[in-house]
Amino acid sequence: MSREIKFRCWVKETKDMVSPERLIGMDGVQVSEDEETVLMQYTGIKDKNGVEIFEGDVINMYTIPMIVTYCGDGQAGLGMNCGWYLQTGDFEKWIELESRHNDNGDNYEVIGNIYEQ
Description:
The protein is mainly beta. Helices cover 3% and strands 41% of the residues. It is built from one helix and nine strands, in the order ββββββββαβ. The protein has one helix at residues 97-100; strands spanning 7-11, 16-18, 37-46, 52-54, 57-61, 64-71, 83-87, 94-96, 108-113. The strands form two sheets. It has a five-stranded antiparallel sheet with strand order 8-7-6-5-9. The termini are far apart.
């Protein structure tokens, strides 16, 4: 089963979370991450309230706040697979999101994101 690919953008100057479509000009310029915007990808998972979980979200997992992050090829040396992870704010604990997702998000609740705290 494939997941839906979509993004949202944090605009640093205005401190707004927007859809990438709002940043695309009339000339169809592609949105990319730069010093003004941060792209966050949808994980394909929703929380217990049906809220889509994106990279950079802070979620409660069994009342423990954790940050959703992506571990790419650059972190493979840390002994982790590429994919979505939940991490504590102090980076002491990393939990693979997909392996925890056998409960259909029932134990996750989005409580914010790392930019709007």
